[in-house]
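Dear colleague,

As promised, here are the two records you asked about, laid out in our usual form so they can be pasted straight into your sheet.

NAME FIELD: protein one
SEQUENCE, THEN STRUCTURE:
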Amino acid sequence: MKAAARLLAGLIAVSVLALGQDSEAPVEDSGFVIRTESNLVVVPLHVYEKKQSVDGLGKASFELYEDGVKQDIAFVEGPAAEGAPPGAARSVPTEIIFLIDFSLSVMMRGLLDFTSIRTTLLEGLRKDVMISVYGFADTLKRFTGPTRDFARLKRAIELTYESEALGSRVYEAIIQTARDASNRGGNVSRMMLVFSDGFSTTNINPDLVVQVANALAIPIYPVILGHSELTDRYNQGGGGGVWRQPRQPSPGQERRSQIPGGTRNPAGLLRRQSNIRSQESRQAIFADIGPRTGGQSFDPEVLNNIVVRKILGSLADLAATEYIVGYYPSSVDEELSPHQVQVRLVDEEVGKLYGGRRVIVH
């Protein structure tokens, strides 16, 4: 267990340092200050019954286990029951992280609708829900830390459009962003929305992303860009139309395969289709990071303001219906070692619990 902890810590450090040496310093500091407790562990989760959030649950509704041993729950915060009087302000704020791939092959100007951000995430949610904006290609940039200032958010996203560059270190960027956010400290619930095609230009193992995200309790929500274009290209014959068996040539006519769109040999077509299948497989691995970290993936056929509003609306619903279960580990090891934390419902008939797991090191 101790070796595993050292290995995980080392992997996080190595992977982010390789990117961090080339990264630019954050362009600004939001000044967002939160209350911190050094040894408090917070575990985010959701409870649904037939796709409806189960609200109003308290400490008596949950059990928390560390390495299979039941622990005392310090507090539970979550959505109030319908009609309940307003309670005390939530003590654990929420940070929604936008991580945008600004590589030349991916960048979509106007990707995010500023009006949707304001109405869906700023005006429609608790005042302690903040948004931060990062962008990446071959390097990672933090354009703003957690903030609710609309002008600052708008400028941060505009900066991503102005930062187009080569490379796409997708998985290093996710790891470093999660680490950068966690290094700000404090008891904060975080979720990360990643806009990318998932085509990393490095060979880092996506499993490491899952390990780090779960250890830091940051669910990932990939938005897969360009998948529908790959599907269209495959259906059209690998980007050059569908190959057809050629007619028999007239005497003296060159024998060659005529393929719509200029492709002239079936072997080339098969290579292109194989390449598209490989790209789709890579996108599927990127998408799978969502459910593996307690999040979900979005695979829109088109990406316009309506679709973006729906995606942001999903994030807003998750922030509004989230529960936070907090506890203090009963012991601290002499040497750091990883511990499995799981929250369960006392009565499973109440609904189905999503999330509620993380790995902590103490």
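NAME FIELD: protein two
SEQUENCE, THEN STRUCTURE:
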Amino acid sequence: MKFIFKISLLILAAIVFVVILLFGYRDITLETLMSKYGRSPSSFIAIDGMNVHYRDEGSSVLDSIPIVLIHGTGSSLHTFNGWVAELKDNYRVLRMDLPAYGLTGPFRKGDYSMQSYVNFIHAFLSAKGIDRCILGGNSLGGGIAWNFALDYPDMVHKLILIDASGYAIKAQSTPLAFTIAQTPIINKLFTFITPRFIARKSVENVYADKSKVTEVLVDRYFELTLRKGNRQAFIDKLTAPKGQSRSKEIKRITQKTLVLWGEEDALIPMEAAYKFNAQLPNNKLVILKGLGHVPMEENPKKSILPLLSFLQENDSLYQQ
């Protein structure tokens, strides 16, 4: 019996060794990541003890009110690359890596509450000398944007909600990385055993057209996950207490709002889009056929068309 037990332990140890050998990844140094993902026009700014990665592009002369874009969970400022390429000739556009993601890294105090993110955006805008902006966000970024509009209404000229979080609606399908990060014990292994295929499956989950999930795209998501502290921060964010929802306050947001949604979004289904449309007193809902949870990344040219119309409209109220 002891012999069998020893053999079993040896087999288990061998399996663990092979798994670590094949799927265990060390952190990638910040210097290495910066050389690939933090080149010009990237800049860094000190906020609350963090060296925050951001990009400030376009014309500050042609448009006095800048556009500020906030990415979602597990993503980075690069998710808006396609949009910014179209916008920067006529608008000033800012975007940043939120704490826990991209090159910015974890919150210094480990507080991943919605209020902490709202406070972060306020600190970022203050550091950049911006007292009024057009604020937009995707997924988590959209949730941060509308919560910010509630707390600092005078700082938000217009609002852009792209497949935004905010309502308690069950996902039809959840990215594999999200599921792992929220599973006790297994999520502990995720901090050093992080198979690349998890990144691929997770990105495919939020795209309607899987053929658009390229190796370069997967590399970006995967490699930025390996920035020091990001894997633990990813877990900490997804397992943080949810806090009390402010969805009942959404009806207080009076800013002109574009609600932009991918028809094939399985993470935050269109039911949420209709709720925003019903609750926001001054909004326009645009459903993007054939696109998923990150329409601005999956098809920038198609998804930016309603945004351009929205930006060019005057400030009269939408008619519901």
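A couple of things worth noting about protein two: The beta strands are 42-47, 50-58, 67-70, 92-96, 133-138, 156-162, 256-262, 283-288. The CA atoms of residues 292 and 299 lie 10 Å apart.

Best,
R.
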